[in-house]
Amino acid sequence: MTDTLINRRDLDFLLYDVMDTASLSERDRFSEHSRETFDAVIETADRMAREKFAPHNSEADKQEPRFVNGQVEMLPEVKEAFKAYAEAGFIAGRFDYELGGMQLPESVIAACNGFFTAANPGTAGYPFLTTAAADLIKVFGSDEQKAKYLPPMLDGRYTGTMALTEPHAGSSLSDIRTSASPTDDGHYLIKGAKIYISGGEQSISDNIVHLVLARIKGAPPGVKGISLFIVPKFLTDDRGGVTGRNGVALAGLIHKLGYRGTTSTALSFGDDAPCHGYLVGEPHQGLKYMFQMMNEARLGVGFGAAVIGYRGYLHSLEYAKERLQGRKPSESDPTKPPVPIIEHADVRRMLLAQKAYVEGGLALCLYGARLVDDQNSHPDATIREEAGKLLDLLTPIMKAWPSEYGTRANDLAIQVYGGAGYTREYPVEQCWRDNRLNPIHEGTNGIQALDLLGRKVWQDRSHGLQLLMQRMQVDLEAATTSRCQQWALSLSETLQRAVKVTQDLGAALQKESPDRVLANASCYLHLFGHICVAWMWLRQANQAEILLADAGYAEAERNFLEGKLQAARYFFHWELPTVAQDIVLLQNRDDTCLEMRAEWF
Ligand SMILES: Cc1cc2nc3c(=O)[nH]c(=O)nc-3n(C[C@H](O)[C@H](O)[C@H](O)COP(=O)(O)OP(=O)(O)OC[C@H]3O[C@@H](n4cnc5c(N)ncnc54)[C@H](O)[C@@H]3O)c2cc1C
């Protein structure tokens, strides 16, 4: 079983050759960094992920956390790995030096986190949630809240959660019912129930900081009446000393298909004891604040899905080189030795599809991380603004595409293993089960599709879409070899058709019921997802051609670059053409699904 989590040459290629991540060190914010410090931190992540996270991945899957005598029992290795991650400074990796952080670019910290997820997505969930919760408190919390919660969260004594979902309100957060009643001393009493809260109870940290969405009594209905509260598991004084247990309690652990190492909890607030909550920012702005965490989490979900897909791909690649079975169709002599299954074209198809999905998905996610860096630290204000608009437009795609296709890659990895893939003796079925969460949480992919077609594309008079087309144009024009130019042409033609369909859908939205126009939103998400990933493959192919022109490379490097070009070819020949179907359905505003009636099923 391979212990490679992400191919380091591939990551270097994406980070440095394609995305030019080393140049970030020229920015003020990252001036104390260099390619060497980026590489050193990535090396640490790779090693720590292999040594501390990977070894208990399968065991944590088999031994789900259990609720025993009021405590959550879990493997001790989870806590050890969490502690090692925190002590190495990764929770605070992207935070300012003044906060004890490493002030690393998002591109680098995302790459580091890729190793942890590839090694063990269940254990990685705890620190990732903690970073995201701390980030939200840093941006929207009061000075007092920051002083109280950030230091222990960033050094790993406290963990964080995001508590949005309620039993009756998942996709539709506007319907949440958890309430907040003001008290005389300025804080609130929280009452209600939340479900599926990841890391909502565990045995790895001294305290848990829940970020809870609730309605202040008398608030307006819908999303405009939702506020955000800090609800700690233990109440503390200003010096961090515990003053009592808060009234947030574990109502039960939820048992799941995958991601079993991360506890999934049902939480009750204020049932058995008063539950104290502390308002973050202004009343009724909670969903807006929470969107910062959700957007970050959505990019993280896409990234995680790509690397779990990647892990399955590497396992199946290794297996396909070792497993001997059958002979080529051209070999008629049954006494000849069997060949490794990688020699069969159909197995290569499954491996190439995985490679195209996971390396394309990873490129897309690293591009998203780069947009975060440009939005936060580019010296040119226009580029900062443009990066923000692109990020806004692309977030649903960066969440949904890798989660759809990373899982599909894991499905193909199982198929490459044959019967062995279906057993629990081999690792690929766990990859698939873990990855299967990603199209569901952080807003289902159906909700991402509605967000893209119902909102994001039209925002700011479609400026984001125009920016995206300009960025693509640069890479279309950069294609110089005949094969890259051919792929650039097919991307350009598909893009033009997508733009035309977008204009038609925009016009239809003015005249027709949105129910009909948005009925096929998932086709639109697929169309744009494939276009974006094709663009990522063109960027990789353009770069591979430049590097291949240098005849001085050793054979291994030439093989790597030829592999990139073949995977690009696969995407352009086998994948991009599949959007023709989406375009037809969207163009006709096909109403087959819309017109189907519940009673006809
Ligand atoms: C393992 C796990 C971990 C999670 N972690 C957290 C967490 O830490 N914090 C948290 O707050 N939540 C968490 N969640 C909850 C998760 O975000 C929700 O499950 C998700 O948002 C979907 O909500 P739901 O399950 O209620 O499904 P529903 O909203 O009931 O959706 C069911 C189906 O209907 C579709 N649908 C719903 N509404 C529409 C619509 N308007 N138009 C078209 N289709 C629609 C959906 O796409 C989906 O296919 C987690 C869930 C899981 C499974």
TrEMBL record:
Protein origin, superkingdom: Bacteria
Cofactor or coenzyme needed: FAD
Keywords attached to this entry: FAD, Flavoprotein, Oxidoreductase
This protein's record includes keyword Oxidoreductase: yes
The Acyl-CoA oxidase/dehydrogenase middle domain, residue ranges: 162-270
Residues covered by the Acyl-CoA dehydrogenase/oxidase C-terminal domain: 285-451
Matching InterPro entries: Acyl-CoA_dh-like_C_dom, Acyl-CoA_Oxase/DH_mid-dom, Acyl-CoA_Oxase/DH_mid-dom_sf, AcylCo_DH-like_C, AcylCo_DH/oxidase_C, AcylCoA_DH/ox_N, AcylCoA_DH/ox_N_sf, AcylCoA_DH/oxidase_NM_dom_sf
Membrane-traversing stretches: none
Residue intervals of the Acetyl-CoA dehydrogenase-like C-terminal domain: 470-596
Acyl-CoA dehydrogenase/oxidase N-terminal domain span: 39-156
PANTHER family to which the protein is assigned, alphabetical: ACYL-COA DEHYDROGENASE, ACYL-COA DEHYDROGENASE-RELATED
Family indicated by similarity: Belongs to the acyl-CoA dehydrogenase family.
The protein's name in its UniProt record: Acyl-CoA dehydrogenase
